[in-house]
Amino acid sequence: MDSISWNVESGIQTLCESVFVRLCQIVGTSKQVAIRRDSRAIRELLDKRVLENDEAVNMESGSAGEGFRLSGSDVDYMYWPNGYRVIWDILQCEYYYNANKILILADCSESPPGFSLLELLTEERDRERNLQSVCVKMNDRLFLSSSQFRQETEAVQFPNSKEHGPCESGDLGGLEYDFAYCFYCIFWPPSASSWIDRCHFWPDDEVVNNIVRNGCHFVPIGHPLGIQGHEHKEWRISFSLAERKLVHSMTHCQFLTYGLLKIFLKEVINKHSDETNKLLCSYHIKTVVFWVIQQNAFPLWCPQNLLAGFWVCFKLLMKWVYEGVCPNFFIPENNLFLSKVHGSAQRRLFLQLEDLYNKGLTCLLQSSSIRSCLIDVLYNLRLSICTDEVRMKPEVVFDLELFNEIGRKSSPFTKNLHRCIKFLHALDQLIGIPLTQCQILMVQKLIATIIRDTAFALKNRYTATGLNKQMYIADRMSYHMMKLAAKFGFISDMAYIAMYCYKTLRYREAVYVIKIIKAKLAQPYLIYNGEVDRKRYTEVLGGKSLSTKMRHAVAGDIALNTSICYISELTPEQQSALQNLRQTICIPLFVMLHFVQFLCHRHTDTTLAQATLEELQVLVHHDQGLYVRELLRDISWEILGICQQISGNHQAALYSYQQSFTQFPLNKIQNATQIRIQELHTT
Q1: CATH topology of domain 51-249
Q2: In angstroms, rounded to a whole number, what is the distance separating the alpha carbons of residues 396 and 539?
Q3: Where in the chain do CATH 3.30.460 domains reside?
Q4: Averaged over 176-201, what is the pLDDT?
């Protein structure tokens, strides 16, 4: 009997370890998750130090902000105007006495728990967006209408967006997104003060204090039941920033359990019935995990016990569905089930969960992502599982994760020379604080990006003066800065040297630089847009420093700041993107290299110019996503059209512009495309 009991216990432990390893493959190891969070933290810290009052702050929220990279997950961002602040008490105005902020007063007196009215207190002057247009008058006071605010901000980022709760939602080339436009309050909500008193076990005091110091947000959605008739005026208190900090404070095993529950919801619970598949969402799952950890309902979180933690969370979810109550983690009086989980749908959902519960842990066999690792153990209970994360994945996997995250987050909005200097000053301040290895690489790449943009901004400023001596000095300085920047960043950063050489009429030198870049890009160990021959990369670069790998083996697409002139031929596209609130234009590296090479050869060798144009045409027409990503086909066709128009082939140029116009408008260059088409029709 003891032997049977031991075998069962040992078998369950092996199941847990197998699921742990599988989740590390799907969700990521603790090192991978740390890379995602650390790189984002540096970028957000940098932006926070340079943003001005008339700009918007953005924060990556949702699962990606928490550290997940799950297949099929959407991208969530929150945006709020930096020149506005919400306060809870009129006495808090003193905090902003010299801050030049527009103040908004939160009034919860007539709203249900978790919601508030927002009263505009300060008169708006010289603001690009005036909130008067979304205000409604009540008792001689101006309140912001959440519904009108949503209508005004709808489709700000992308024209085909739809309303989804408080968000602008849509599909970005197969990637779903949710953008929430909101307001920020640095003060902790009085209605959430009880949460602070509950934090005896988790999170620790440092995390609690950090969360409270950073306040909350207000997103434009009223209470679903329309209590007091204020549903179109009410705003929901959002704890997205606090939630992100809480998830970051979890142990990796807790984080993986949360990930397992998200997968279980998507692949099992929400697959059962059309009537119930919209009742539960990942936010309910997150709330369950928060309560379980804080109440210490499951004290032993480790790989050998992972499924027990999953089961405790699942049982709490079942209990809440049965009772029809899901208490918000920060304001428990706010029942998250109030408008959805009730009546016959609630009963059906509970019966569905009860059926899964009766199956025990075998219900996980219904998950396509988890099934195989369970079956492997069930066929061989004596299977030995290694849970050492260091041995789970090779070095190249972590390198890919790191360089992918750095590539995603290393294009700050350096709109002019003044902003570039502010960024450099902020980076200088970062050097004095403790940084992880990932953050050091992130800073290194950011330095390269900002020095490069500083060089172009400096050149543009002194070219505009027309003073020869100043122009000469600025050119010498800028050219030196360009070469310096290329020593810090990716291989693709060298393309900016070629662009600068073209801009300053150094055509042969630009072609020479492009030749060097192409030779580097031909190396078999190159990482380009997250793809690499792993075997060759490991053979050549295994064990080398991350800085060496970044400088010699990594390349990505070209990001052009829409406020800085790099190549005059692209000015209309940059202006179009800027008018549509795009901060950067993203161009495939190989398209940009052919573009600059063509422009240079026009001045030195027309035969080579035609040959380069033909190569560019083949690339744009026939590439299957290897060198020209689907999302970047708008600018790729546009550049091909520009080259064809310059060479005199107007018919081919017209076709290319028309193709550009039909692509997904990621770069927001449609206005420029229309103008170019009209120009061709008039010539």
Answers
A1: Beta Polymerase; domain 2 (3.30.460)
A2: 10
A3: 51-249
A4: 94
C-alpha distance from residue 538 to each of 259, 260, 363, 520, 543 (Å): 30, 31, 40, 17, 8
Contact present, 430 and 577 (Cβ < 8 Å) = no
The H-or-E segment that residue 166 falls in is none
Q: What is the spatial distance between Cα 316 and Cα 326, in angstroms, rounded to a whole number?
A: 10
Amino acid at 377: V
Cα gap 174→630, rounded to integer Å? 10
Delimit the CATH 1.25.40 region(s) of the chain: 557-683
* Of residues 390, 359, 416, the one with CA closest to residue 583: 416
Give whichever of 171-175, 340-344, 674-678 has the largest mean pLDDT: 674-678
Rounded to an integer, what distance in angstroms lies between the CA atom of residue 641 and that of residue 637? 6
Model confidence, pTM: 0.92
Q: Does the structural domain 557-683 have CATH classification 1.25.40?
A: yes
Give the CA distances from residue 532 to residues 76, 403, 553, in Å, rounded to whole numbers and listed in that order. Answer: 28, 12, 10
Q: Which of 15, 4, 29, 35 is nearest to 442 (CA)?
A: 35
The pLDDT of 219-233, averaged and rounded, is 81
Residue 581 clears pLDDT 90, i.e. is over it: no
Q: Which residue has the tokens 């050097």?
A: 431
> What is the DSSP track for 625-643?
SSSS-GGGHHHHHHHHHHH
Provide the 8-state DSSP code for 94. Answer: G
Q: What is the DSSP letter of 124?
A: P
- Give the model's pLDDT for residue 195: 97
Separation between Cα atoms, residue 532 and residue 554, nearest integer Å: 9
pLDDT in tens, 369-428: 999 999 999 888 778 898 999 899 999 999 999 999 999 999 898 989 999 999 999 999
